[in-house]
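ok so dumb question maybe but i'm new to this and my supervisor (M.) told me to 'just get the structure for Ribosomal RNA small subunit methyltransferase A' and walked off. so i did the thing. is this what she meant?? sequence i used:
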Amino acid sequence: MAAIDDLPPLREVIATHGLQAKKALGQNFLLDLNLTARIARAAGDLAGSDILEIGPGPGGLTRGLLAEGARRVLAIEKDPRCLPALQEIAARYPGRLQLIEGDALKIDPLAHLTPPIRVAANLPYNVGTELLVRWLTPPEWPPFWESLTLMFQREVAERIVAAPGSKAYGRLAILAQWRASARIVLDLPPQAFVPAPKVSSAVVHLTALPEPRFPADPAVLSRVVAAGFNQRRKMLRASLKGVAPGIEEHLAAAGIPPTERAEQVGLEAWCALARSVKAAT
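this is what came out, is it supposed to look like this??
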């Protein structure tokens, strides 16, 4: 394995600092620095960007981001055991790594970041989807980030990039693809991690679009899509009947047969339906 810096191998770092992964924190450590460097490169040209990293753990991806030229990395870590190892990285890259101990769900990182901003993280499995949804649903668009390069369970990654008609297609696909371009850039088997999880993982790269692909009110689109997929086995005329009076007229206005099911409807049609519902309120 080629070294990406002159710091110790991650197995040695973990042994030195007693960093056995905790299931309660959703931790599975990726120890191959070649892989963490590949994830960092998948985030694009980092030289002029601040990077937000969530859950750096012993710092494998952190080292990859810094070695690949990130201007600055802001790393938010909930596990205080990891801070001494991360501080050793900060000392190796003076002025380029800032550490915040705490819960990423409760911390606003923007006061510590300067645009352009990218997010890159091997997200803890227990908070990954919630963080993604937050980043995709800010009060204003474009968001604070230019791109997201994120590790998920393979099943979640497939839901983000899914196409209409597939079993994985649902609310997460619509949410991600409405205002971003999303693709899977790297697959990782369980044995790449310590401890090995029971499922495969994948890295998804999302690039923010300047504006949504199709016009729609975000709140109405979210409500309509949620109603449709909450009862995805039902025809839309049934699953959406509580969304607005005369739902079949709205479906017709959007060009959607009332007998369709949610997973058969593409993003453009969902947006057209949201616009019709909005116009009637």
